[in-house]
Amino acid sequence: MKIDGIWYRSVRVDADDGWSVRMLDQTKLPWHVEWLRLTDEAQVAHAIRSMQTRGAPLIGAAAAYGVALAMRRDPAALEAVCAKLAATRPTAINLRWAIERMLAALRSLPEAARAAAAYAEAAAIAEDDAATCEAIGRHGLPLLQAIAARKPNQPVNVLTHCNAGWLATVDWGTALAPIYMAHDAGLPIHVWVDETRPRNQGAALTAFELGAHGVPHTVIADNAGGHLMQHGEVDIVIVGTDRVTRNGDVANKIGTYLKALAAQDNGVPFWVALPHSTLDMRVADGVTEIPIEERSQSEVTDLTGRTKDGRIETIRVVAEHSPAANPAFDVTPARLVTGLITERGRIAATAEAIAAMYPEKP
């Protein structure tokens, strides 16, 4: 999507040398736009683990390029490299999906052929994600058009949680793709952007990319969403997801479950946008079976921001000797989900609807 009017993708092969990989350093946003140049799988693994690159679909594509970089150096290390990259983050299933796809494409090849094939397969994964997200946007757009038709000359107010835009994917995004398409079509769209503590992906990333594209938005405290719903100021909630079970349970950034509860209590539609790579048909009960990543206490106890004189500083906001817990995700049961927006269309969050839409999924 656009930064200063220029169209970018979140991961790409460096055009200057034709083999290194460029990724946007998301830990520097919104204060600085810096592109990482990654030259081996260890740097890719660090970028994923440290959240320099993040977002379920994007880390899958990033890991695929990590495999490609490794195959340039040591094509015999395929299994070890894939295991290392797959271990970087546990919750988002797209990572495992991309690694398994790379393994399937490369295992049977002679070692001398693996590097070229790895770059081709990583590029195919990236292209698939961009096309998938664009299709999600097309299938989600009618939801926003219908709301606009019911309230002419008024903004369509969408609430979203975390970042599920182009920064979380190769292009377009999942939850934000319908919003971009609605904005570009001239619909009066306004987005309530949850700050998304503790890493503030909403305040730092979603607000950044919406602003860069010119989409009207307002950042709110995480706990404000229910209040806005009670007062009729939210027409629809659209979120992304890191894993969807075969029964329609949804794992997403911590706090999503609370938004779903508030939406149900106030009769607000709660939609989840996902690509096919986010479906995990091997899991039935999301609450008990999806591993939830526990991240560093410092993400809760400390805050990083820009001072009035332009310095980037980190400060502690929690009492000195108080410990912190930091589960990064929660699971929203399917019963709270109005529906799923996929690249193939909109469906109910049920085992039957998912199986019918994706009959090829094991």
Description:
By secondary structure, this protein is of the alpha/beta class. The protein has two domains: 2-128, Four Helix Bundle (Hemerythrin (Met), subunit A) (Up-down Bundle); 138-357, Translation initiation factor eif-2b, domain 2 (Rossmann fold, 3-Layer(aba) Sandwich), CATH 3.40.50.10470. It is built from twelve helices and 18 strands. It has helices spanning 41-49, 56-73, 78-86, 93-106, 111-150, 177-184, 201-213, 225-230, 256-265, 286-289, 298-301, 351-357, and strands at 2-3, 6-7, 11-13, 21-24, 35-38, 156-160, 189-194, 217-220, 236-239, 243-245, 250-253, 270-273, 279-280, 302-306, 312-316, 329-332, 339-342, 345-347. The strands form five sheets. Strands 8-7-6-9-12-17-18 form a seven-stranded mixed sheet, sandwiched between helices. Strands 13-10-11-16 form a four-stranded mixed sheet, with helices on one face. The longest helix has 40 residues, at 111-150. The protein is globular, with a radius of gyration of 20 Å. The active site is at residue 242.
Helix % is 25-40%
Task: Report the total helices.
Answer: 12
What is the CATH first-level class name of the largest domain?
Answer: Alpha Beta
State the total count of DSSP E strands.
Answer: 18
The largest sheet, given as strand count, sense and whether it forms a barrel, is: 7 strands, mixed
Radius of gyration over alpha carbons?
Answer: 20 Å
How much strand content do the residues show? 15-25%
User: Which whole number gives the mean pLDDT?
Assistant: 96
Tell me the name of the CATH homologous superfamily of the largest domain: Translation initiation factor eif-2b, domain 2
| Low-confidence parts | none
* Class from helix and strand fractions: alpha/beta
**Based on the structure given, which CATH architecture of the largest domain is correct?**
3-Layer(aba) Sandwich
The CATH topology name of the largest domain reads: Rossmann fold
Placed side by side, the strands forming the largest sheet appear as 8-7-6-9-12-17-18
Number of domains: 2
State the end-to-end distance. Answer: 33 Å
What letter string, H or E per element, gives the SSE order?
EEEEEHHHHHEHEHEHEEEHEEHHEEEEEH
Shape: globular
